[in-house]
Amino acid sequence: MGSAVAGILGSPHGLKNPGKEEIRRLLLCEGADQESLFFHADRTRKVYLGDDVHLRGIVEFSNYCIKNCLYCGLRRENTALERYRMTPDEIVDAARVGAEAGLRTIVLQSGEDPFFTGEMLARVIGRLKEESDVAVTMSVGDRTRADYALMREAGADRYLLKAETADPVLFAKLRPGTTLEGRIERLKWLKELGFQVGSGNMIGLPGQTVDSLADDILLLKEMSVGMAGIGPFIPHGHTPLAGCTGGSVEMTLKTIAVARIVLPYLHLPATTALGSMHPEGQERALKGGANVVMPDITPLRFKRLYEIYPHRLGSGEEGLTQSLPRVKAMIEKLGRSVATDYGHERPPGSSDPRF
Ligand code: SAM
Ligand code: SF4
């Protein structure tokens, strides 16, 4: 192991309470140091969480959005996109298929679509919880506290609301009309309401620095979230960021690995965006700290229209019949196992074997 990384990874203090400079150096490492980082992240994952990989089936039930995020293909000003909404019955049916195939978490995701009121979402959640033994994660963006409360009361277990970037100036530019402060306040509401909260960020946003990537990891720690979706930014042709370069696979993998080392119990998906950028992207993430995969179980006729970014992995696959076998084969190939429990947040215990 090269000295730059060895000094950080070898120090219990550095691991437990890493400063920004240490995180920055880990993110910048290359070659043999980078391999050591992945090795260390993999070992940390194994020690803290074991070999189980949690599968979370995602139903993308609406691609309507009132927001205009500069990076996203669902933004309201993208008039080239054909819009759809699944009916409550279609959402419940898709989730049931996932539950019957053994998935223990169903994620309901959409653009910010006020057509689905808090009450409507609560009814869908209630039906899901009544008929299937699954944990439910909601990912429907910025809502009122009252809407979040309705979802929680209906039985939703988790909420995914990514900070996207910890740089407040960049955040405000990329998500017009919103602030990082407002996003963080919502994460706090969600925690107060009893949700297990997930956040995360994109890698390679225009104007993003390694410094701000280090802040992204520190923000996860500060918010003590249970899950973090970390994926590359992939430019979409019908957005203002069409000409941008996008995130790199290597920097995304390093960020996942550092997040694992900093937050050993964090649920970390091998993101679909990473798999979309490189055929081995998800596999490499699982070998470098990740412990979750989110197979897309949206029916094909809708899934192809949920075009956040182009050429999404699995966007041509018919729901579970194709996406699940591919994901399971990848997990088996790595000698890992598919988890059979819900994969709830893991509170850090006092029996931390490292310290
Ligand atoms: N509307 C909700 C929200 O913004 O929180 C949930 C749906 S949104 C499409 C889900 C995630 O997609 C965002 O948190 C963002 O990180 C990711 N995303 C959007 N555009 C992307 C792009 N061009 N490349 C990679 N990820 C992207
Ligand atoms: Fe809408 Fe979410 Fe896309 Fe922003 S990231 S445009 S809120 S779907």
Folded structure, characterized:
By secondary structure, the chain is an alpha/beta fold. The protein has helices at residues 3-9, 12-16, 20-28, 31-49, 88-100, 118-131, 145-153, 168-174, 180-192, 210-222, 249-262, 272-277, 281-286, 300-303, 319-333, and strands spanning 52-62, 105-110, 135-139, 158-160, 196-203, 227-232, 292-293, 337-338. Strands 1, 2, 3, 4, 5, 6, 7 and 8 form an 8-stranded parallel beta sheet that branches. Helix 1 (3-9) packs parallel to helix 4 (31-49), helix 4 packs across helix 11 (249-262) and helix 5 (88-100) packs parallel to helix 6 (118-131). Residues 71-72, 74, 109, 111-112, 139, 141, 161-162, 164, 202, 231, 233-234, 236, 273, 308-309 line the site of S-adenosylmethionine. Residues 65, 67, 69, 72, 74-75, 111-112, 141 line the site of iron/sulfur cluster.
**Helix coverage percent of residues?**
40-55%
- What Rg, in angstroms, do the CA atoms define? 19 Å
Record field, number of beta strands: 8
Q: What spatial form do the alpha-carbon principal axes imply? A: globular
Distance between the termini: 21 Å
Indicate the mean pLDDT.
Answer: 93
Profile the largest sheet.
8 strands, parallel
Low-confidence stretches: 349-355
What is the overall number of helices?
A: 15
Give the structural class: alpha/beta
State the order of secondary-structure elements, H for helix, E for strand.
HHHHEHEHEHEHHEHEHHHEHHE
Query: Strand share of the residues?
Result: 5-15%
Bound molecules: S-adenosylmethionine, iron/sulfur cluster
